[in-house]
Specification:
Length: 311
């Protein structure tokens, strides 16, 4: 009995808590979909469209690939961000016997109304400069899970999760117009999605693991991203860049899995160097065309951040 319960704990865990190498505490509101969140962009509050100058440019603004000047490689670089609620839920989950409907009910009831979130990304990459072009290729392995528990009298567990894997490659370049950089990427993604509602009785059922497998839907697609960066011709001690990126230019029909929509992001960043340090501030408006269907909250699309680079 306890052994089967352990398998169920692992199944529920897979939806939203898979351990972590490093983590950032998320806000308690549902996140917009995203194929990848790098640790540096997370530290910038998600404002990275006009900053992109490293491997994150593959996903935030491919024009930033033009800033690659040397060989770079990342192999062991997993990133996990998890909500504080999910850490508490994980602790209680380990103590619960999910073969028992009563215990499963109490577990869910205790966390009614809490937003659960976990995202795991692993992006091994290689980047280099050739013929004044910044070039990078990368693998994609990511999992993103959100969950809510509703209805206190008869709790319902509603997980929404995507598992993605694939590969991407991009190139960025300076163009003859002073201060202008452009870039593009192509990517292939294979996806599995889960979007269902489960009661405590469902979870306690002997066939719950089989049902999870049956409820997962799959699909794949190919798309591309485009981006531009422009350094404003302003005489100042600060350097200011404006960035625009179009992610998933070809909207991805993922078959039975969740589709991936086109999004357009706009950002501005300013930086100044002093005494070997560099201070960067950034402001982004993500999804300016409001492609995400969850809501039309304008303020939720605004992201700001700052970074101090050491000598």
């Amino acid at each position: 009995m306890r052994k089967r319960s352990l398998y169920k704990n692992i199944s529920v865990l897979t939806l939203s808590f898979i351990g972590f190498f490093c983590f950032a505490v998320c806000v308690s509101a549902a996140e917009y979909p995203n194929n990848y969140r790098g640790i540096r962009p997370l530290g910038m509050g998600g404002a990275f469209t006009a900053i992109s100058d490293d491997e994150n440019a593959l996903f935030y603004n491919p024009a930033g690939l033009s800033k690659i000047s040397t060989f770079s490689m990342g192999i062991i670089n997993p990133v996990v961000d998890v909500s504080e609620n999910s850490i508490d839920f994980y602790t209680d989950l380990n103590d619960a016997d999910l073969d028992d409907t009563g215990e499963a009910t109490e577990l869910l009831r205790k966390h009614v109304g809490e937003y659960q979130h976990l995202a795991i990304n692993w992006i091994p990459y290689v980047g280099f400069n050739a013929a004044n072009l910044g070039i990078m290729v990368a693998g994609i392995a990511s999992a993103n899970a959100d969950a809510e528990i509703r209805n206190p009298p008869y709790p319902e567990f509603h997980p929404k999760a995507n598992w993605d894997y694939g590969f991407t490659g991009g190139v960025g370049a300076k163009v003859p117009l002073k201060g202008l950089r452009v870039g593009g990427t192509a990517k292939y993604i294979s996806r599995e999605s889960l979007d269902q509602v489960y009661t405590a009785a469902d979870i306690a059922n002997d066939d719950f693991e089989d049902r999870l497998d049956d409820d997962r839907k799959s699909g794949s697609g190919i798309t591309m991203d485009l981006g531009v960066l422009y350094e404003l011709p302003i005489e100042s001690s600060f350097t200011t860049d404006v960035g625009l990126s179009v992610n998933n230019l070809i909207e991805m029909d993922m078959g039975e899995a969740e589709d991936i929509d086109r999004t357009i992001n706009l950002g501005i960043a300013t930086q100044r160097s002093f005494g070997g340090f560099t201070l960067i501030g950034a402001f982004d408006i993500l999804d300016i065309t409001k492609s995400y269907g969850q809501d039309d909250d304008y303020m939720k699309r605004i992201h700001m951040g700052a970074e101090l680079q050491m000598p």
